[in-house]
Each structure stands twice: as structure tokens, then as C-alpha cells.
Amino acid sequence: MLQSRLAFIGGGNMAEAILGGLLACGYPLSQCVVTEPLQARCEFLHSKYPGLQVLSGPQANILAVNGSESSSHTASLVDAGSVHINPTAASDMFPPAEVVILAVKPQVLRGVVSDLGETLHQRQPLVISIAAGIETSAIARFMAEGASSSLSTSSAIASTGPETKAPVTVQAQDLPPVIRVMPNTPALVNEGATGLYATPDTTPSQRKVAESLLGAVSKQVSWVNQESLIDTVTGISGSGPAYFFLMMEAMEDAAVKLGMDRETAKELTIQTCLGAAKMAQSSDDDLKTLRVKVTSPQGTTDAAIKTFEKGGFRELVAESVKAADSRSKSLAVELCGPSIGKDSKL
Ligand SMILES: O=C(O)[C@@H]1CCC=N1
């Protein structure tokens, strides 16, 4: 497996799922650094992954991407008590990240990426975003905003006075490449399904890196060739586990109403869902044929399926998937403004 130096920006569930999957595949812990603002979560990550570098505090993200090569920088952060490094790793110097995984909530992505703009511009790592809804063009715009404003500030400081100050604009081609991915929570049990979209300026080897990182926790890794289809991936597999949980909840409740105890109803429901998924995965039959094979004419399944169809089940599912797809798109507009255009970086 490729063993690039990884910086996870954000140490939540999805970052942990990817990290855990990589470690289980033999990825070296020493090649990973995680930043996390919440103290309790840092402590949890420390105790679960002894030796993992977990950074916190205002400069943690920059340090994770830049590496600790600038020792004065690291020392001042440690002295200020604002960075938590696992004691076993505290004395280690670590190199800059080759891959940066943006694993923060979409709502805070703009601030995080903008603060990292100058560092990303200088270091040129591969950037992989798992933030729902946020387009690669918006991520590039946030990077450019951050990089341009730091460069403008430093050029102003270097200049002799305000009259010589000129705003600096970082160009699209000078920004690191971005791959946008949508994994799902079954990644936590190594059963994830992930969709990926790469901007045209990514190289085949960068796409391979993204695929193997996400492949560590995903049984299904699918590339889409238009960015808008990542919203559809979100509508099916990103949000999809919740649809199946809802279906299972409803089946469990229905059996309880008919007199079954809840535990039995739950176990039968879960195993039925798992068994159906395994059959669908291993069979040569398509989904419709599998359904028809369970359904004896005028039998029990027939009675249930007719009730589903009469109630508009298919239309409801189609509407629900479309609602998630649309929400992914509107989330992007709410957080980043109108789309700048397909595949455009800035
Ligand atoms: O509900 C959400 O917004 C996220 C995206 C995919 C799964 N959860």
C-alpha cells in the first residue's frame, strides 16, 4: 500500500473510520497526524491509538500540514500548552503532509481551508475533502482567499509603506489538486461505500492514492465523472444507511404491534437486511429477479409488496433520494454562494 504522510484535519467519526481502516491494513501510525479541537476527543484518540500524533489548538492544522520542521514553531505551540502530542511521539519531528484529508463539518470548512490557504499553497499536498455538499471549486476558492490574503499581508510588511502595497492573487494553477469523496458510516465497520470525484488537474497516481485510502474502509469505491453526481452518491450511499435503519425500525415496530417481543423483532429484522444485502451482492440475478423469486403468486410476500406499491413506495424512495441530492446542492450554495461552474477552480 502507498504510505504517504497523512494529515487528518478533524478527528471525528469518519476520520477515525478511515484512520482505523488504514491502520488495520498495516498503514504506519507514524505516517498519520490528526487535528482535533475537542479535548475529550483528543484524549479518546490518544488512548485508542497509542503513539498517534493528535494536535489541538489554534495552530494545529497548519502544523499538521507543514510538519514540525520549523522546531521553533512547534516549541512555542507546545510551550503555550495549545498542542497536545501523544507523549510517546512528543519528541518526534514529523515531515509535511503529502495528503491532507479535510474531515470537518461543511459549516466550518471555509474557515479551516482559508486559514490553511497559505500552507496548502506552499506545500502542495493532495487535498481530499469528505465534507458533504462543498464543491471542489469552493474549496479552491477558500484556499485562494487564504493564500492571497497572507501573501498580501506579508508583501505589505516587506514593503516600505502602504503606498507600495499591492494585493496578491493566487492563481488556480498554483493551488493543490482536490479530490472530493463521500464515504458512509458503515466505514466504521469496514463495510463502507464511497463515491469519489477528482478535478481534471489531479494525476492518475493522486487518484490511486485517494482510492486506496478510501478503499481501506470501503467495500465499494466508485468514481463519478461529474461533480454533481457526488450529490447523488450522498443521496444513495452517504445518507443511505439511515434509510435502511428507518426501514428496519418500521419493520421492528410492525412486528412488536403484532405481539412479538422487541429484541426478537430486532434480531430477525437485522439479519434479514444483512442476508438480503449479501444475496444481492453474491447473486448473478438483478434486484428485481431476486425480489420476484421470494414472491410466490398470491402468497404472503405478494400481499406485502402490493401494499408497498399501492402506498407509492417507489415514488417515495425516489423523492427521498432526490431530496438528499438537492439538499447536498443547496447546502453548498448556503455555505459557499452560487456555484462557480463545473470543474472550474476559481
Ligand atoms: O446527513 C448528512 O448531511 C451527512 C451527509 C451524508 C451522511 N450524513
From TrEMBL:
Superkingdom per UniProt: Eukaryota
Residue ranges crossing the lipid bilayer per the database entry: none
Protein's UniProt keywords contain Acetylation: no
Pyrroline-5-carboxylate reductase dimerisation domain sequence ranges: 227-331
Keyword NADP: yes
Stored InterPro entries: 6-PGluconate_DH-like_C_sf (IPR008927), NAD(P)-bd_dom_sf (IPR036291), P5C_Rdtase_cat_N (IPR028939), P5CR_dimer (IPR029036), Pyrroline-COOH_reductase (IPR000304)
Keywords: NADP, Oxidoreductase
Domain Pyrroline-5-carboxylate reductase catalytic N-terminal: 5-133
SUPFAM superfamilies: 6-phosphogluconate dehydrogenase C-terminal domain-like, NAD(P)-binding Rossmann-fold domains
Family: Belongs to the pyrroline-5-carboxylate reductase family.
Stored NCBIfam families: proC
Protein name per Swiss-Prot or TrEMBL: Pyrroline-5-carboxylate reductase
